[in-house]
Write a structure and sequence with these properties.
Helix 5 crosses helix 6. A seven-stranded antiparallel β-sheet has the order 10-3-2-1-13-12-11, sandwiched between helices. The protein folds into three domains: 102 residues, Roll (Pdz3 Domain); 110 residues, Pleckstrin-homology domain (PH domain)/Phosphotyrosine-binding domain (PTB) (PH-domain like), CATH 2.30.29; 95 residues, Pleckstrin-homology domain (PH domain)/Phosphotyrosine-binding domain (PTB) (PH-domain like, Roll), CATH 2.30.29.30. Strand 2 and strand 3 form a beta hairpin. It contains six helices and 27 strands. It is of the alpha+beta class and 426 residues long.
């Protein structure tokens, strides 16, 4: 037995959960009266005349954008009892034109242009019908949650979890009878969500060049801190695509939304590391810090979701692509109180150019690099005089950048080049 709870936990409704291909069905307990109507489970052909006021008197939901067929959600006709059309019927064809693969908007346009009389080929789905009709006795509305990029999160109360469709702001809180039941449902739902997500990513990547494909994208739980020392987690959608990192408020439905994204960084401008300050030692491996020169996002991956190895491999690829696309990066610095420019180059390594004398003061290969340290805008670099692992004969070079943010970006860039060198294909 399961319950759907209100956000304050005061109101509960007994429900059954069912997983379909792309949706989680939430069906209120109908008290054994769920078989009160019978519709043949086969294709039927229905002829509908256009109403005098316009339209055919049916409302539709679903569509390709939701990975659902075109479903009749309402019947708004005076002759509804005689036309043998039902809520929950999927429209298979409109005047012999298949609706498979159409969006809801395209299906609506197909109906508008169907003439004064339309021939519908329909097939009934009882499970969908139960979601679209109110239970006559209890008046409780059944619902479904689309699984594509749904946000699933455990709750502090050990028997409960919440699930939220990416296209909705409403959360569905599910309370199970025990912790074991909750864990089983979480694993099952996460697996179903991941299948939907993988299929969508594959679709988006279909015509993309290899260097511009989506490597990873999913919801993360962003940690937010408040003045009264309370911590909350809020959903944030993170995507690694090509050489860039994207942050969204909701899952992108098309590649166009990546072009319109407001928060985008190249991977070499960022750092992704395990969160060393996480106090939950059991889950430390799923907690990360995404840092840019101006922002820091502490987040966790949902338990039961994608593995950390998948994220880290995607991050390594994203960083590598950003570095080889960049090839070299030059920073304005002060060295020994003189204006200079320090270049990090994929082939050359590190090179400091003195602007006044117009000559290079020093050059070091990546194999000679040992470590760095930051103190505000000052960055200290340690190099070996020879390409050896010996700790002797090391040299300290200190440069000063314009501000702390630039110093941080400089270090991120160094780390990106070094990590990319270590994973670069020969």
């Amino acid at each position: 037995m399961m319950f759907i709870c209100s956000s304050n936990g005061k109101h509960r409704v007994t429900v059954q959960l069912e997983l379909r291909d792309h949706v989680l069905l939430i069906i209120p307990n109908a008290g054994g009266n769920s078989n009160k109507y019978s519709v043949p489970n086969k294709e039927r052909v229905i002829a509908l005349p256009r109403r005098p006021e316009g339209g055919f008197g049916v409302a539709i939901k679903g569509g390709h954008e939701h990975n659902l067929p075109i479903i009749i959600s309402k019947i708004l006709r005076a002759d509804s009892s005689s036309i043998k059309l039902y809520v929950g019927d999927a429209i298979v064809k409109v005047n012999e034109v298949p609706t498979r693969g159409l969006s809801r908007e395209q299906a609506t346009e197909l109906l508008r242009s169907a003439g004064e009389r339309v021939i519908l080929t329909v097939k009934h789905y009882r499970e969908v019908a139960s979601l679209l009709k109110k239970d006559d006795e209890g008046g409780t509305q059944a619902a479904y949650v689309e699984l594509l990029f749904a946000y699933v999160q455990e709750m502090e109360e050990q028997r409960a979890f919440k699930v939220q469709a990416c296209s909705s702001k409403e959360e569905t809180i599910v309370q199970c009878t025990d912790r074991g039941e909750r864990e089983t449902w979480l694993r099952t739902i996460h697996a179903a969500v991941q299948r939907c997500n993988d299929h969508k990513i594959e679709q988006l990547n279909r015509n993309q060049e290899e260097a511009n494909k989506i490597h990873w994208m999913d919801w993360i739980s962003k940690k937010c801190y408040f003045p009264w020392n309370r911590q909350r987690t809020l959903p944030l959608f993170l995507a690694l695509k090509g050489a860039s990192v994207y942050q969204f408020d909701r899952a992108p439905a098309s590649l166009t939304e990546f072009d319109d994204c407001q928060i985008v960084y190249k991977a070499y401008q960022c750092s992704l590391q395990p969160d060393a300050e996480c106090i939950d030692l059991a889950l430390t491996s799923r907690h990360y810090v995404l840092e840019t020169p101006h922002h820091c996002v502490r987040f966790s991956l949902p338990p039961g979701g994608q593995s950390t190895a998948v994220l880290e491999r995607a991050w390594a690829l994203c960083t590598y692509l950003s570095v080889i696309t960049l090839s070299s990066k030059t920073f304005s610095v002060q060295f020994e109180n003189k204006a200079a420019s320090l270049t990090i180059d994929w082939n050359m390594g590190f090179a400091l150019y003195d602007i006044a004398s117009k000559e290079y003061l020093w050059k070091y290969g990546f194999a000679q690099y040992r470590s760095n340290g930051q103190d505000g805008a000052r960055v200290s670099l340690v190099f070996a005089l020879k390409d050896t692992a010996c700790c002797k004969n090391e040299l300290l070079r200190t440069v000063t950048l314009n501000n702390d943010a630039q110093a941080k970006q400089f270090i991120f860039c160094i780390n990106a080049f070094l990590s990319s060198k270590s994973v670069a294909p020969h």
